[in-house]
C-alpha cells in the first residue's frame, strides 16, 4: 500500500513539473492541429462613445482613458466601416475591441475583443485577417458580421504591426523585429519572419533566420499577380546589426518565399544618419505601378536629402526623386507609402526640410521629376488618396482635396496616421485618439493603386 501511494505521488510531482517547463520555439516543420471554430455571441450596439454633429461632419469618439490609440486604416466589410484600436503605453478599456459602424443607421457595434492592433486589417472571401500586437494575428469568419466566428488565434508568434496580403488562397505577412529582449536576448527566430498562412490560419511556410532573413516588416506585402514584394526595416540579431539579413531593403519573392531579387540602395542593409537614430527603412508598403515600383524610405543615406526611388518589376533602379530634409528628423513615417495613379506617377508626403512640423505633398512623374501639390502642418504624413475630384491630403485638423480649385475641410483637432477612405461618396477619417469622422461628400476613388482601402478585397494586388 505504501508503495502505491509513493508511485502516485511521484506521478503527480512529474506532472506538475512538466506543466512548468517553458515551451520551446516551434520549429517551422511543426504542423498544428486546426482549432475549432468558436462562434461569438450575437453582437449588440456599443454605447461607450459620444457623437458630435455639424452640417457636413459626424464624429464618433470612443470614450477611453487616454491609453487607447488607432493607427490602422478603416476598411469596409459588407457595407460596415470596420476599425480597431490598440493599447499604447497603458491599458485602455477598448484596446482589444473591434468596431463596426453601420453608416445607414449610424449605429456603432462592438464585434468582440481580438487583441491590440495598429495594422490595417484585410477582408477577403468572408474572412477578416487582423494583425495583432499581442497575438501575431487573428482570423475570423465574418460572413455574418453580427456573429463573427474565430477561426484561428496565433498566440505563439511575435507581433505583427502591418497589413497582410491575400494571394493564391494564402495570406502573407511579416512579424516585427524589435530591439527589445523579447526578440533579441535569445535571438527569437519568430522575430523578423515572413509567413505564408493558409485559409484556416495555419502557417504553412516561412522565410526566417534559417534562410538568412530577419527584418522588421514595416508595411504590407504587395503583388503584381505573379510575385510578392516586401519592404523591410532593421535586421538586428541579438546585440549586433553587422550581418546583412535583408534589412532596410526591397525584396521580390515567389509564392513559395524564394528570394528572386533584392534592391538595397547605397550602403548594404540598415544605416543610421550620424548623430541620429534615423534608419534607412522602407516606409509602408512597396507600391506597384503597371511597369514600375515606387519605394519611400524613413531616413536618408546622407544628412541633407532623402530619395523616393522608382524600380522596374525586377527591382532594377529606374531613377530617383531627391528631397531636402532636416538631419535630425525622418522625412517620412512608417505608416506612409506612395500612392500611384493609372499612369504610374507617384504621390508622396515629405516632411519639410526647414520645419519639423511642416508636410508637403508631391506628385512625382515617371521621369522622377517632383511637382509640389500642397503644404500642411503636421509631423508624420499619411498616404495620399486619389479621387475623381482631387488628391486627399490629410493632416491634423484638416482634409485638403487638392486640385486646381483645392477645397479645405476643417476637422476637430486630432493626430492622424491612417489614410482617409471613401465609401458611398463620403470620406472616413480615423484619428489616433479613437475618433471616426464621417465627412458628407460625393467622391469616388480614381483609377490607380488601391492602397489598403475600400472593401480591401485584394487591396495589395496590382489590378
Give the topology.
Blueprint: H1 2-19, E1 38-39, E2 49-53, E3 57-62, E4 68-69, E5 75-77, E6 80-84, E7 86-87, E8 97-102, E9 107-113, E10 122-124, E11 127-132, E12 136-141, E13 149-154, E14 165-167, E15 170-174, H2 181-184, E16 194-197, E17 203-207, E18 222-223, E19 228-231, E20 250-253, E21 259-263, E22 287-288, E23 293-296, E24 305-311, E25 317-324, E26 339-340, E27 346-351, E28 358-364, E29 370-377, E30 385-387, E31 390-395, E32 398-402, E33 407-410, E34 421-423, E35 426-430, E36 435-439
Antiparallel strand pairs: 1-13, 2-3, 3-36, 4-7, 5-6, 6-8, 8-9, 10-11, 11-12, 12-13, 14-15, 15-16, 16-17, 18-19, 19-20, 20-21, 22-23, 23-24, 24-25, 26-27, 27-28, 28-29, 30-31, 31-32, 32-33, 34-35, 35-36
Overview of this protein structure:
The chain has 463 residues and is mostly beta strands. It has a single domain (43-439), classed as Quinoprotein alcohol dehydrogenase-like superfamily (Methanol Dehydrogenase, Chain A, 8 Propeller), CATH 2.140.10. The chain contains two helices and 36 strands. The chain has helices at residues 2-19, 181-184; strands spanning 38-39, 49-53, 57-62, 68-69, 75-77, 80-84, 86-87, 97-102, 107-113, 122-124, 127-132, 136-141, 149-154, 165-167, 170-174, 194-197, 203-207, 222-223, 228-231, 250-253, 259-263, 287-288, 293-296, 305-311, 317-324, 339-340, 346-351, 358-364, 370-377, 385-387, 390-395, 398-402, 407-410, 421-423, 426-430, 435-439. The protein has a five-stranded antiparallel beta sheet with strand order 1-13-12-11-10, with no helix packed on it. Strands 2-3-36-35-34 form a five-stranded antiparallel beta sheet, with no helix packed on it. Strands 5-6-8-9 form a four-stranded antiparallel beta sheet, with no helix packed on it. A hairpin with a 3-residue loop joins strand 2 and strand 3. The chain starts with a helix and ends in a 24-residue tail after the last strand. 49% of the residues are buried. Mean pLDDT is 82; it is low at 1-36 and 452-456.
